[in-house]
């Protein structure tokens, strides 16, 4: 085969054994890899509870991984989310996906539960399960140092071991498989870490054509102001978006009660760069290098973390943001959910945050202490237990990231329709509503947004299946990547063929959620966005979203997606898509 290894490992922890099997080539064509194949293998198990030993945790690479394809060093991790009950998945960077392909596997499926804390070590196709009780409670950095020499590593921290519903799996020390509580799935199976390394090469159909397609994409990246400009993501990381969200008056503040933060100019990417002088890092096979790490190894916060640990909770100390990011990273907590849960706590309790109090609460979350024990269950559960469910800014139980939906209506619709709960990455309408890529759209209208959101969801589904980085699509398109796909696999898929594959992958996720009872009732936003202003000033007004317009847009989305009026899958559409 070209591109794929053609082999998947299935590890049964309850039996202490593993086996390998060959995927049907037709399944590879229909679901490609990454997010698509993970969803295919999750579907028959998704109605199980997340902590049921039969619930699989799935790691999948794509056909472009371990090749010279641009931004190909990613993978998907998937299971059922402990936080939301939805499909839980994350596209993760680092070297794990590449090493997994080099070890000879397109993916691994982990089932069962160990009777003691263990590690899984994969070395060039050999898989062993080893005791890891001595690593119980270890933070990410220390655990990683103990695994040095074993290749790429995926590790959980004390947050997962202590039951935090938004705990992450941390890849290679600082790349997170986050947002869904996937770390808790590893903890429930009594796995502390997974390591992988290999030496195998991935066969490529046409290396010369791949080099040509690769250079064309690199030229587009070099010409992209968003990626390569003086104020772009290559220079400042995703924190480059901070000033832009401030200027558009859509930076969530005070638990989304406002969309403007008066101290934003003191907390932006430029301030980070002046203070910490970070160096550029990135995933395997990427030339964008959006990760920023200081000289002493301190990881700089991404945009969502920078925004939420400043504007959302009213913090004006940039060192506290960096420290909060470090705590989340070292304990294995999702920083977006952690900060959003703190903001919910502040609104309900009336308590204001000092720098020390922020850091104390984060440690209490991770270690299940004091108020942190309840906060570790996430904003939605905390708000319900205190009798104030309206204070949780969540969709399907997942905390919203750092884009106020009143400032971009495509974002409002995409939050609601996201299969994994409140998420900006399913369709990423920031691209066209704010960054004007590929074309600008009016951010204060739902006109045309249903079709756009559906198409963007399909695009990102196939990007996460190839697997590649979404950022590079600020410059390139699926037309360029169809050439890359053809050069690697020898399969002549057009950009439209890939989009159709993305539609199949996303519809499969809607089907999985429907089987767990999710419907139009869950495809909604908190009432706050329909009944309150975000910002009123001389320059602009960010008013409440018209609920009638939102509901019409949602119905239009259902029609475009091939769902019924209650957001449920239709047999006719599923058959048409071949699922």
Walk me through this protein's architecture:
The structure is a single chain. Helix 7 runs antiparallel to helix 21 (478-489) and helix 12 (303-312) crosses helix 13 (318-331). 59% of the residues are buried. The chain has a domain at 8-197: Aldehyde Ferredoxin Oxidoreductase,  A, domain 1, CATH 3.60.9.10. The model has no long low-confidence stretch (mean pLDDT 96). The protein has 579 residues and is an alpha+beta fold. It is built from 25 helices and 18 strands.
Per DSSP E runs of 2 or more residues, the count of β-strands stands at: 18
Radius of gyration: 22 Å
Strand order of the largest sheet: 2-1-6-3-4-5
Counting helices, strands and paired strands, the structural category is alpha+beta
Helicity level, as a percent range?
40-55%
The largest β sheet comes out as: 6 strands, mixed
Distinct helical segment count: 25
CATH architecture descriptor name of the domain at 8-197: 4-Layer Sandwich
Distance between the termini: 24 Å
CATH topology group of the domain at 8-197: Aldehyde Ferredoxin Oxidoreductase,  A, domain 1
Return residue spans where pLDDT drops below 50 for at least 5 consecutive residues.
none
Shape: globular
The share of residues in extended strands comes to: 5-15%
Average the pLDDT over all residues and give the rounded result. 96
Report the CATH C-level class of the domain at 8-197: Alpha Beta
CATH superfamily of the domain at 8-197: Aldehyde ferredoxin oxidoreductase, N-terminal domain
Provide keyphrases for this structure.
579 residues, alpha+beta, Aldehyde Ferredoxin Oxidoreductase,  A, domain 1, six-stranded mixed beta sheet
